[in-house]
Amino acid sequence: MPKVRTFDTGEADYKELRTKGGGVQKVCEWVTPADGHHNSIGVAELHNIRIAEYRFGFSDFLYVTGGSVRIIQDGITHDLTPGQAILIPEGAVVTMEVKDWLRWIYITDPGNWRDLMDTPGSVEAMSPDAPAAQDADTVSDLKNGAKIRQDILGPEYLDPLTGGSNAFDTPWQDLVTEMLWGRVWGGSNLSDDLKLKLNIAIFTVLGKPEDLVPYVRAAAKRGTSFDDIREIIMQAAMYAGLPKGFTAIYAARSVFDEMNEGEHHPLPRKD
After folding, report:
1. β pairing state of 69-73 and 76-80
2. The model's pTM
3. Cross-strand partners of 61
4. Digit-coded pLDDT (tens) for 107-123
5. Strands 76-80 and 122-125: what pairing?
6. Angle at which helices 226-240 and 192-206 cross, to 10°
7. Element (H, E) at 159
8. What does the alpha-carbon distance between residue 193 and residue 221 come to, in Å, rounded to a whole number?
């Protein structure tokens, strides 16, 4: 009669499969074709390792029991933590990132996965504080957003704003560039000219003359007349309140004077 078997991940006898610097992938095979099974079942641990462009020559079901892993395929990111599982079908090409450690139970089909392994594009060590690779959509939105932001606001506004960025505020600048400029400005059906007019109204209502100025300048440079800009501010002010309208009109006038006379008038004091 067939006998039942028990397994304990805490007492697994691991053997190294891949190493690179401080990164390591090791496996403990519990059930193999040598035992008369079609599948291979076991537990694997990975520490501080990134395996890029790995083509699977077999199907692999993976259930995370400890740590975490990021799996990227075709620009789509899957972040897995304990209790989650993933099926990687035969022929799939993925990148796996383990910034600290990972333990998962695997079931492969067929079981002779070692004979079907393909060499990954690259294997490298990862430190726990290393930034994870960005997926393709994020990179595209970030790159496109940076170009749109530069085209709309110009270097004279952006360089002082972003030139002094450091490790603390760069993630914030990247978020604004990716989400606001890459996805909203880059992905909307509205024209850039209409968005500029909307921003003039928005910053009038918010009472933010310092934020209003670059959009008034951008709108004027793209052909919006100062008569139209004045009308936008006047209409917004009727809803936002006359003090905000007063502040916005003088902010816009400073741009008008700058562009028409080469003079820049300071913004009026709010008090």
Report:
1. antiparallel
2. 0.48
3. 87, 107
4. 998 888 778 776 666 78
5. unpaired
6. 40
7. helix 155-162
8. 10
